[in-house]
What we know:
Protein name: AAA family ATPase
Strand order of the largest sheet: 1-2
Low-confidence stretches: none
Strand content: 5-15%
Mean pLDDT: 85
Domain Helicase superfamily 3 single-stranded DNA/RNA virus: 1-59
Structural class: alpha+beta
InterPro entries: Helicase_SF3_ssDNA/RNA_vir (IPR000605)
Shape: globular
Radius of gyration: 14 Å
GO molecular function: RNA binding; RNA helicase activity
Organism: Streptococcus pneumoniae
Distance between the termini: 31 Å
Amino acid sequence: GKTQFAKRLIKLFQKIALNYGQILDYCVTASTNAFDEYNGQEILFLDDIKGDSLSISDWLKLLDPYMISPISARYH
């Protein structure tokens, strides 16, 4: 379904990027603690994330292209 479609789309983006000499790494996150595994990859796939998984402030930080600010994460 949706997850498999998104993964195929990521592979397509990676293939296109390779044609331009770029490598795009991606991170697939869990629905809870979504940013625990994120480490600066170019593609972030928020798999099965729900609206209440992040605070309103974190959603705004994530979706605002002009805001460069850390998002909440737990640390291992």
